[in-house]
Amino acid sequence: MTGLIEAYGGPGRFEARLDSLFTVPWDPKYIARNVSGFIGQYCHGNQPDHEAPFSYHFIGRPEKSQQIIDRILNDMYGVGETGLALCGMDDAGEMSAWYVFSAAGLYPFSSANDEYIVTVPVFDKVVWESSEVKKLSIVHLGEERALKEIQVNGKTHPEYFIPHEWFTQGANIEIFTEK
Fold first, then answer.
1. Cβ–Cβ contacts within 10 Å for residue 144, how many?
2. Could you tell me the pTM of the whole model?
3. pLDDT tens readout for residues 110-134
4. What class, spelled out in words, does domain 105-179 have in CATH?
5. Burial, 40: exposed, middle or buried (Cβ in 10 Å; 0-12, 13-18, 19+)?
């Protein structure tokens, strides 16, 4: 992501480009017609796009990511009168996995590294328990949805990422939010 941000001319230009991705309407003449779930030109029904809502984290704007993540969680998934609703094909469960991770407050941004982006969970508390009975808990403290601070084991965590090893070692992550 660092290289991509630099290629766009820095954080400000990258943010403007992301903003346009989520606001400029898509033109059906220039995209496959069998995709769905659009927010601007972002297509949640096309799994290769799924990292885009989290990209604001890389320029220190997690609240913008959270707005888009919440919109997707609320508007593009659900169970209604017609049954289960997904805004695209659930190839090998990827669409469902996106929902589970995003709703739980962690997202594996890249399969090439062992870190997860921390977001605001939709639950007050999520607990992941390993076979060694170590627990990784994520607690959302507050009623709002904009990420203000992350604390790990009672200490401020200055990053938006946590390592995979915390799933086996255990940790208590507290998410503080604001308007």
1. 14
2. 0.91
3. 888 899 999 999 999 999 997 777 8
4. alpha beta
5. middle
